[in-house]
Design a protein that fits this description.
The structure is a single chain. The model has no long low-confidence stretch (mean pLDDT 94). It contains ten helices and 15 strands. The chain folds into two domains: 171 residues, Jelly Rolls; 44 residues. The chain is 37% helix and 25% strand. It has 287 residues and is α+β, with helices and mostly antiparallel strands. Strands 1-11-6-13-4-3-2 form a seven-stranded antiparallel β-sheet. A four-stranded antiparallel β-sheet has the order 5-8-9-10, with helices on one face.
């Protein structure tokens, strides 16, 4: 078992210094500066396919380390999105939401997070809650949260509540501040921070103009079901109301109660292509 796999299973994250070389890092920074932005729940930069292709061999090589790991097997990756503080990115403690709504689990899900513009080493990083520290201090709570997602942690008067933003209610109440367990890897431009999907993380600060690309790897062969997708609560409905991709997901589950993830993602991809064609047609007509 490689060091990367070992650390991801034990701690949930691993810092890989110099994952990209200078030329690759600068190429992605230029792609961000020249790229397109999409506003749904928040504003993200869209990585051009040519930019992803520049680093695709490194991503594929990384994923080969998980081929024989039964409990954590991300095997495919898609495009990338740029998270930039200048676009308002400043998140509190959470497990990722929308990837959980789609994948229905964060097992076999890897976030490859790479700063490409990073003015200061010690600032505007990601803070993380290591899995082993969470397990040590709140084992019962972590047993409910492991491999999950769509959770938000809020602290008041020295206590932490963790909400279930997928189905409603609370996952856990902790008698300490989650912040006490946090660590903050100091990332330079080109470093990679590999995160399991169930990792609690937050923005350290938004005081510098940091841009990071996030590339997500997943297992396309897991099964997703209508029953899970249709579980809901006000927080989830807010996400759904602000992103048209959920219409495509609902349409896919109208036809079938279950499918493998790759089939669902193909339906989402075709729906996005249709929206883009319609937008182009509308723009052409206006001109």
């Amino acid at each position: 078992m490689s060091y990367i796999v070992e650390q991801l299973l034990k701690r949930g994250f691993v810092h890989v210094p110099g994952f990209l070389d200078i030329e690759e890092t600068e190429a992605l920074a230029d792609d961000y500066r020249n790229g397109q932005f999409h506003r749904t729940v928040y504003t993200l930069g869209h990585a051009a396919p040519e930019a992803i292709e520049l680093i695709s061999d490194k991503i594929r090589s990384l994923l080969t380390q998980f081929e024989d790991v039964t409990q954590f097997k991300p095997s495919r990756f898609g495009g990338g999105a740029y998270f930039a503080t200048e676009k308002g990115i400043n998140f509190g403690w959470h497990q990722d939401h929308e990837s959980y709504f789609i994948n229905q689990t964060h097992q076999h899900y890897l976030n490859i997070y790479i700063p490409v513009i990073k003015p200061e080493l010690e600032r505007t990083n990601l803070c993380v809650i290591p899995v082993d520290r969470f397990m040590e201090h709140a084992p019962e709570a972590w047993s409910r949260l492991e491999w999950g997602g769509a959770a938000t942690a809020k602290t008041e008067n020295g206590r932490t509540t963790i909400s279930n933003d997928h189905a409603g209610g609370l996952h856990a109440e902790l008698d300490f501040e989650l912040e006490e367990l946090g660590e903050t890897p100091a990332l330079a431009a080109g470093d990679a921070l590999l995160l399991r999907g169930d990792m609690f993380h937050r923005t350290q600060d938004n005081d510098t103009e940091r841009v990071a690309i996030s590339i997500r790897a997943f297992n396309p062969d897991i099964t997703v079901v209508r029953e899970h997708y249709e579980q809901s609560c006000p927080a989830k409905r807010w996400f759904q109301a602000n992103n048209p991709m959920y219409g495509a997901i609902s349409d896919a589950f109208e036809e079938r109660d279950r499918m493998i993830l790759s089939e669902l993602m193909m339906s989402m991809f075709k729906a996005r292509q249709a929206r883009e064609r319609a937008a182009q047609t509308q723009q052409s007509a206006a001109e």
